[in-house]
Amino acid sequence: MNLQFETHSPNDTLSLGKKIGRHLEAGDIVLLFGDLGAGKTTLTQGIARGLGVAKEEYVRSPSFTLVNEYPGKVPVFHVDLYRIASSQELEDLGLEEVFSSEGVSIVEWAEKLFIREDASIPLLGIERWIAIHITIEEEESRKLDLKTHNMESTEHPVFTLH
């Protein structure tokens, strides 16, 4: 099952992220796909707020640190793979621990997880995930397509969003 959303401003994207975050569960992995400037970090900020990360906590893209952890109702791991150049570099990071934790992992530039021959399955032992593809429609408008992989959509609370 797919869900589709449209946002018409960064605030709309932030609000949608909050709604999504309120419906995520411990162990969920959210993979974000989209061009530079599509709104991945803005969506992540909203998801983090929906997961209980305090407003005082500045959620920023971890482009140089690669992973930021934020306390919420469950730990929130914000991963940015923009600077990763190879599958070996990715595997050397040790992100398996993050992805197997009882927190929620949000991955920007998730395309980098699909750089091996079998491009339908991500690296690092990820078996179940929620993919969100963000497309720039106009200057402020975004189309977001949300789909689960290897999980029953009827079982996951994110599909109660409408």
Key words describing this protein structure:
Rossmann fold, 162 residues, 7 strands, alpha/beta, seven-stranded mixed β-sheet
Gyration radius (Cα, Å) is 15 Å
User: Helix-strand pattern, N to C?
Assistant: EHEHEEHHEEE
Globular, elongated, flat, extended or rod-shaped: what is the shape?
globular
- Helix content range: 10-25%
The biggest beta sheet reads: 7 strands, mixed
Give start-end ranges of low-pLDDT stretches: none
What count of structural domains? 1
**Strand portion:** 25-35%
How many DSSP helices? 4
Mean pLDDT, all residues = 86
Distance between the termini: 12 Å
CATH topology title: Rossmann fold
Q: Count the strands?
A: 7
**CATH architecture call:** 3-Layer(aba) Sandwich
* CATH homology-level superfamily: P-loop containing nucleotide triphosphate hydrolases
Q: In the CATH hierarchy, what is the class?
A: Alpha Beta
